[in-house]
Amino acid sequence: MPNTQIYTDGYQTLKEVVKKALAQGRKPRSYYKPFFELAIDGYREIRLHHAQEGKSSQKLIPSSLDVIDFPPDFEDFIGAYIPLDGQLHPLTRKDSIITTTSLSGVIEVLDATKGEGVDVSNPIGVGPYVKGGVNLEGYYTVEWDKRRIHFRNITAPEIILVYRTSGTMIGGQTFVPNRYIPFLIAYIIYEYFKFDDKYPQSRRQELLSQYQTEVIKLADLESPSLEEYMDAIRSTYYATPRRY
Amino acid sequence: MATKIEIIDYVRGIVDPSGVNPRFHPRIVESAIEKICNQVARNIPEELLDSYDFYCKEYTNQTVTKDTVTNRFYTLLPAPVIPLSIVSESVRHINSNQGTDLDFVPMRETDWEIYDGLFSDDTDTTIGYIVRYNRILYDKRMTQAVANGKVRLVLAVTFSAFDDEEHVALPGGDYDMMNAVVSQLLTSQPLNLKNDVK
Prior knowledge:
The complex is a heterodimer. Chain A is an alpha+beta fold. Chain A contains five helices and twelve strands. Chain A has helices at residues 14-24, 32-50, 181-193, 201-222, 226-234; strands at 11-13, 55-60, 67-69, 76-84, 87-90, 92-93, 102-104, 107-109, 139-143, 148-152, 159-164, 175-177. In chain A, the strands form four sheets. A four-stranded antiparallel beta sheet of chain A has the order 2-11-4-5, with no helix packed on it. A four-stranded mixed beta sheet of chain A has the order 3-10-9-6, with no helix packed on it. In chain A, helix 1 (14-24) crosses helix 2, helix 2 packs across helix 3 (181-193) and helix 3 (181-193) packs antiparallel against helix 4. Chain A starts with 10 loop residues before the first strand and ends in a 10-residue tail after the last helix. The radius of gyration of chain B is 21 Å and the shape is elongated. Chain B is built from six helices and ten strands. In chain B, helix 1 crosses helix 2 (26-42) and helix 2 (26-42) crosses helix 6 (174-186). Chain B has helices at residues 4-15, 26-42, 109-115, 119-123, 144-148, 174-186, and strands spanning 2-3, 57-62, 65-67, 72-76, 91-95, 104-106, 127-132, 135-138, 151-155, 167-168. In chain B, 30% of the residues lie in helices and 21% in strands. By secondary structure, chain B is α+β, with helices and mostly antiparallel strands. Chain B folds into two domains: 1-47 and 167-198, no CATH class; 57-156, no CATH class. A five-stranded mixed beta sheet of chain B has the order 3-4-8-7-6, with no helix packed on it. In chain B, strands 2-9-5 form a three-stranded antiparallel beta sheet, with no helix packed on it. A two-stranded antiparallel ribbon of chain B has the order 1-10.
């Protein structure tokens, strides 16, 4: 017999979360605006530090300057990859890459005589028992001030940039998975009162421990699955001659 | 619950059974009750403001107008309100005439300035409002479409805003309230009518 029960949605809007925080914290609606701002911060906090959610990937082609600008929704950098055998192959960060550019009139260009845009040398010894290895697929360095990433030695035409997004939508409803709601409420209430000297210190301490409890609960939810653990263990196994 | 005029008559019956003393004219008694009510309401802590809804008055079909100079929508208060511990909370609720489908929240004007340009300002559609003097001012999220629909207001109005025959609930408990009103009235100086003319 088919299951005809209808369950609640797995998501709620950020606005609904804020209303819940007001109700749970017994606060009047005039706290709505500061609570909403904190809800945005809290959701970003979850995506930056506590959950797998928040990872975005984009295929991007480096410009003539061998750079990729941060996408508009970029919050934090996770990694730069190229596709290899159906998986992401990570490029290696090398902060010694020269990130300056030169000007040709008003146009930004790379001047190879100044080391700009020049592939980094990766001496690999050839021969039996030679030690060492390098990432043959490429290198990058992040230029935070100009919000862009420089690439060198790239073998693939496109880079897959993996980065964090805030999760908050401009011009539309932001939907928050239900499993994050207790965390968000604890975060909002703790963050609002933690610098408020009028609030008793013991109460602030209590709010902090409630928030920390929610952090631990989230960590439980986000911990690796049994299959991932099993794969990690199996990867250490050695093939043995089959005995008949 | 008694009507407003019954409450006033009751107080006058205590302080001036003869009903002729101008010190206890109905307007003076009304004013005394109003002042005590305002003080009781003003003293309600912010976390208990929801409980004040019982004492409020509802006004439907209130017009939302756009001020052409400030480019801001506003509604004229249909009655004077009591400034509660959070002043904007004096306008307890705003919504469409028949529902709770719209989202309005009381704010401070300072919040408008602080949150201007922040993420919550860019992403949220909830309409904030402040109360100033004789009007409710809406923030930039108020739209012409919402304004066209008119609004329903629930206001923490003063005692004088009730009609004589309206039933009025007094905050703070009838007995305490009456005692406070009577005490206040009896401390007023009596007129010496006898020696008034020389």
